[in-house]
Amino acid sequence: MGGGYVLFGSARSGQMIMVALVLMVGSFYAGSIFGNNSPIYISQPSSSNSSSSSPSQSGPSNFANKIELTYRRTSVSIPESGVNVCPLKFNEYIPCHNVTYVQQLLPSLNLSRREELERHCPPLEQRLFCLVPPPKDYKIPIRWPTSRDYVWRSNVNHTHLAEVKGGQNWVHEQGQLWWFPGGGTHFKHGAPEYIQRLGNMTTNETGDLLSAGVEQVLDVGCGVASFAAYLLPLGIKTMSFAPKDGHENQIQFALERGIRAMISAIATKQMPYPAASFDMVHCSRCRVDWHENDGVLMKEVNRLLRPNGYFVYSAPPAYRKDKDFPVIWDKLVNLTSAMCWKLISRKVQTAIWVKEDDEACLRKNAELELITICDVEDVSKASWKVPLRDCVDISENRQQKPSSLTDRLSSYPTSLREKGISEDEFTLDTNFWREQVNQYWELMNVNKTEVRNVMDTNAFIGGFAAAMNSYPLWVMNVVPATMNDTLSGIYQRGLTGAYHDWCEPFSTYPRTYDLLHADHLFTHYKIYGEGCLLEDIMLEMDRIIRPQGFIIIRDEESIVSRVRDLAPKFLWEVEAHELQDKYKKTETVLFCRKKFWAIL
Ligand SMILES: *[C@@H]1O[C@H](CO)[C@@H](O)[C@H](O)[C@H]1NC(C)=O
Ligand SMILES: *[C@@H]1O[C@H](CO)[C@@H](O)[C@H](O)[C@H]1NC(C)=O
Ligand SMILES: *[C@@H]1O[C@H](CO)[C@@H](O)[C@H](O)[C@H]1NC(C)=O
Ligand SMILES: *[C@@H]1O[C@H](CO)[C@@H](O)[C@H](O)[C@H]1NC(C)=O
Ligand SMILES: *[C@@H]1O[C@H](CO)[C@@H](O)[C@H](O)[C@H]1NC(C)=O
Ligand SMILES: *[C@@H]1O[C@H](CO)[C@@H](O)[C@H](O)[C@H]1NC(C)=O
Ligand SMILES: *[C@@H]1O[C@H](CO)[C@@H](O)[C@H](O)[C@H]1NC(C)=O
Ligand SMILES: *[C@@H]1O[C@H](CO)[C@@H](O)[C@H](O)[C@H]1NC(C)=O
Ligand SMILES: *[C@@H]1O[C@H](CO)[C@@H](O)[C@H](O)[C@H]1NC(C)=O
C-alpha cells in the first residue's frame, strides 16, 4: 500500500481524553492502492493501541487538527492547526435534515401536507464548522458493479431496514456486508421481473420500457434504489429520492451502492427538477398520499412528466377492494381524468397512466372547473423553494426527442435558445469538455472503476456530464438556483440533475461522492456572502466527498490560490495543473484529493 499511518494525540482542553487522528495517506496519484478488484480494507493499525502521542515511524509531518465540536461563527476563522474535526457521533451529519431540529419546528409546519419531511436548514450559527469524520471501521466503499449487490456494513451501520424489510428482500445482513438481493416491497421476486412486467404493460407485451420511450425515470420513495439499479442495463437513467427519516437511511444505502439518489420529499414545494423532464414517474408503495389536498401532488407529477410520459402506481388502491382503498382509487381516477391522463393498464397490483398531450381536453376540463390552467410565466422559473401549484401546465414546446441517447448528448437542446445559449456556444462547450475530461482522467491517474458517484456542482449545460457519459459512472448535474436556468437543457440531452443553492448544504449523506467538479462555482458565489463563503463551500464539499475522492476546481487565479492555501487545513492534498480554458487561454486547475483519515 502506498502510505503509512500517522498518529497523533490532541488533548482537549484540560481533559485527559486523548484522541488520535489516523491518517491513511494514500500516495497521491498512485494507482497502486486502487489496483485490485477487491475492496481495500483499512483495518485499525495494530500500533494504535495506546493514546500514544508520538507520531509513528514513516509518517510525514503531523496533522494537528483538533477534535472539537465547532459551530459556524459569524466570521469564519480557520485555526492554525487546521479545520477542527467534529466528534465521532456526527459522522452522519446532514445539516438540513436534522430530525431533532425539525421536531422543534413542528408547530409551524403543515403536517397534513407532510412539510416535516422536506429540507429545513438551521440558522447559520447552528451549523457545524468542523470536518465530518467517518464512522468507526469505515472502509473505502466496494466498487461498482459489485456494490450493486454488496456494501460494507460498517459504512452504513443501520439495521432497521434489514429488520423490517428483510422479508421483502430489500437488504440482508451477511457477515461484514450488506447484501441487496434486488427486491422491493412491490417486487419481492426481484426488480428485473417487475421491470419486464412494466415493459409488457406499456407495450402490449411487445417490448420493454426503453421501446416504450422511457429513458429518464423519477423514482418516488425509492427504498434502496434497486429499481434504478436494474433499469441501468436498459440504458435508463433514474433519479431516485426518498425523505430522510429517523432510522431508515434509504438514500445512504443507495449512494453507497453507487446508484444515483438524493434526499428529497414531495410535500409542499416543487421538486428541484425542471418541468417536462421525465418519461416516467414511478411510485411503488412510496407512501405518498396522492389523492389528498385536491391532488396537488399529482399536479406536481404532471409538471415533471413529459407529454406521453407514464405514471406508474404500484400500491394497494390499485388492486385492493377493501377498507378505504376503493374511495382512494376513485379519487385518483377523478384526478387523473381531470388532468387528461389515460389509464392504459391495470393489472397485478400496478396501474399505469399516460399523460396525454391533449390541449383541447385540458381547456374543456378547465371550463368545467375540474382543473385550473397555470399562468404561463410560472412555468419558466427554476423550481427551487417554489410552493406547489394546484394547476396544470399547457406545454408549449413539443419537441421530438432525438432517436438515440448518443444523439441526444450531442444535439442542441432547443430550450437553450430561450436561455440565450447559441448552437455554436453549445458545440464549443461539448467539444471543450470532451477534451478536458480526457485530460482529467490522465491527471487523476486512477482506474476508471474508482470513480462512480460524480457531481458537477455548477453544471451549466451539462458538457462535463455528457463527456463523462461513456464511463461506468453517473453524474449529478447541479445548476445553482441563482444561475441562469439551464437544467431543462441538461434533461433534454438525456442527462439528469437538480437545482441547488450552495449557500445551503446539499441533501445528501456524508461521504457519498467520488468526484466533485467545480467550474467557476466559487466566483459565482463570491457576491452572496453569509453561508456561502469559499470556506463554507469547501467544508460542504469535504462533507460529501468520500475519503480519497477528488475535487477538481477551476476558477479565477485569486480563488484558486486561496483554495490552494486552505486545502491542507481541510486535509486535502492538492496539485495544480495548467490546462486551457474554452477560449484557449491557460487556466490553473486544482486537483484536490481528500485524505483518508479517521478518528481512533
Ligand atoms: C481496473 O480495475 C478492474 C477491476 O477492479 C480491473 O479488472 C482492471 O484490470 C483495472 N485496470 C487497470 C488499468 O488497472
Ligand atoms: C496492544 O495492546 C495489547 C493488549 O492491550 C497488547 O497485547 C499488544 O502488545 C499491544 N500492541 C502494541 C503494538 O502495542
Ligand atoms: C440537531 O438539532 C438539534 C436541535 O436544534 C441540535 O441540538 C443538534 O445539535 C443538531 N444536530 C446536529 C447534528 O446538527
Ligand atoms: C395546510 O395546508 C392545507 C392545504 O393547503 C391548508 O388547507 C391548511 O390550512 C394548512 N394547515 C396549516 C396548519 O397551515
Ligand atoms: C454499529 O451500531 C451498533 C449499534 O448502534 C454498535 O453497537 C456498533 O458498535 C456499531 N458498529 C460499528 C462498526 O460502528
Ligand atoms: C412479458 O411478455 C413476454 C412475452 O411477450 C413474456 O414472455 C414474459 O413472461 C412477460 N413478462 C412478465 C413479467 O409478465
Ligand atoms: C394495447 O392493446 C389495446 C387493445 O388491443 C389497445 O387499445 C392499446 O392501444 C394498445 N396499446 C399499445 C401501447 O399498443
Ligand atoms: C368522482 O367524480 C364523480 C363525478 O364527478 C363524483 O360523483 C364522485 O363523487 C367523485 N369521487 C370521488 C371519490 O371524489
Ligand atoms: C444569463 O443569461 C443572460 C442572457 O440570457 C446573460 O447576459 C447572463 O450573463 C447570464 N448569466 C450568467 C450567470 O451566466
Automatic annotation (TrEMBL):
One of its GO terms (cellular component) is trans-Golgi network. It is found in: Endomembrane system; Membrane. Its main location: membrane. InterPro entries: Put_SAM_MeTrfase, SAM-dependent_MTases_sf. It is a single-pass type II membrane protein. It comes from the Eukaryota. The chain crosses the membrane at residues 16-35. GO terms for biological process: methylation. Keywords: Glycoprotein, Membrane, Methyltransferase, Signal-anchor, Transferase, Transmembrane, Transmembrane helix. One of its GO terms (molecular function) is methyltransferase activity. Its EC number is 2.1.1.-. Pfam families: Methyltransf_29. Belongs to the methyltransferase superfamily. This is Methyltransferase.
